[in-house]
Design brief:
Blueprint: H1 2-14, H2 17-26, H3 44-56, E1 60-65, H4 73-90, E2 98-101, H5 112-129, E3 132-135, H6 140-155, E4 161-166, H7 172-182, E5 185-189, H8 204-221, E6 223-228, H9 232-244, E7 253-257, H10 262-270, E8 275-281, H11 286-295, H12 298-309
Parallel strand pairs: 1-2, 1-8, 2-3, 3-4, 4-5, 5-6, 6-7, 7-8
Helix pairs in contact: 1-11, 4-5, 5-6, 7-8, 8-9
The chain binds dihydroflavine-adenine dinucleotide.
Amino acid sequence: MLDAVSKGFFHVLARSRALKRLASRYGMAKHASFARRFIAGETTDEALAACRSVQGQGMLTTLDLLGESVGSLAEADAATRAYLQLMEQMAPAGVDPNISVKLTQLGLDVDRGICVDNVRRILEAAKRLDFFVRIDMENVPCVQPTLDVFDVIWQQQYREAGVVLQSALHRSEKDLERLNAMGARVRLVKGAYKESRSVAYAKKADVDRAYSRMMRALLLHGTCPAIATHDPAMVAEAKQIASEHNIPRDRFEFQMLFGIRRDLQASLVKEGYRLRIYVPYGREWFPYFMRRLGERPANALFVARSLMAER
Ligand code: FDA
């Protein structure tokens, strides 16, 4: 119950332009760096350095140039070009060839056809540079369009891309069955958005149970499964399923977000599991940051404390 309220509250705040202006002014500034716990920085240099540091600790990375819900084709084109430029910079910088993108950043809400073209531009570069491109999953109105775009690129034989499913949604188990049968690569998450009871589980326990069922199906029948969670119970269950079914450790990976549960991250690495860290960066960090606050109200206290400490 508290989870739903907290998610809803922070999603409302995420839409506040005034708050976004205020946060952008103070959140990433050196003297009040509360956003830096979750975001690698605003510049490409900062992001590449953060990836190298994470990789130096024995983990893999996927880099996300933050941005979403663009309102024009010019912005979608600019985001596409920014990703293309970033990809060219990553290999020489010694950073894993793996990025995460949001389709509303590439024009999904503006023109579906152009969005597909933009994804294709990125996938052509991915082919040439040997990259993997994960298409993040956004809120419910974007789910079917995102899967439709994924189907189009899949039919066009692009195999350098994978998608994300959210266990919070009633539909996701069916979606997983279909994607597993196709041989598509899926990242499984619980879901970061506040959704209505008509489409999503209202109780966290139900989201967790669905996660557990989907995780089993993904590990047993999926292609390069990505188990993306910081939940120690889910992590333990994944390890158990893998060991019971003799699934080698290089056949799946855990994924976690930059700055979250570093203790669990370190212990997985120590035990020899593959772990990929999602490293977000860029000037458009506010909505991502608000989702992280919504997941754990204690984070809001952390922000408040760091603001007070600067006074
Ligand atoms: P749960 O919420 O049960 O948390 C388990 C534990 O993790 C908590 O008890 C706490 O210790 C820690 N924790 C979780 N969130 C925290 C936070 N914000 N701050 C501090 N500690 C925290 N979602 C989505 O809708 N679309 C997407 O494309 C993605 N992509 C994605 C990639 C990767 C690599 C990850 C790890 C997650 C996502 N997500 C996502 C986010 C996901 O849906 C979910 O909101 C968060 O991962 C939190 O859920 P957990 O599975 O960690 O479990």
